[in-house]
Write the structure tokens for this entry.
Amino acid sequence: MEAKQEGLDSETKNKLWKELKLKWSALKRNSNSNDTQKAAAKKRINEIQDELGLDKTDFEAPYEGGSQKKTKEVENTGGVVNQMAGISVDTQKIIAAVNQKAHNIEEKLDHIISLLEHNKVADFDTKDIPK
């Protein structure tokens, strides 16, 4: 199958990948495709996968919610997953701090706007801005 993929030029590969993505979207739950269109999409998906040298999807196999291989990969990379979770917590803290600063800036801007609206431009002083 590798030889078949290598024989394709870049433009053809790109077109096939775009078509593959389009055909997969026809299989989504919220698509308006009827059963005939979905069957045709499944057939074309397998054809494109064959042309690109990919493993064909077995649409007749029952859905298992993920493969055993992926589950084992996650178990074997537990340290990486824990690191990613730590990064996620740090990222959440940073986002919370940024949101708080944005809220403070909005409050200061609201105060400045209210001073300007009440014609206190002449009386405006930076000491009037809340810290």
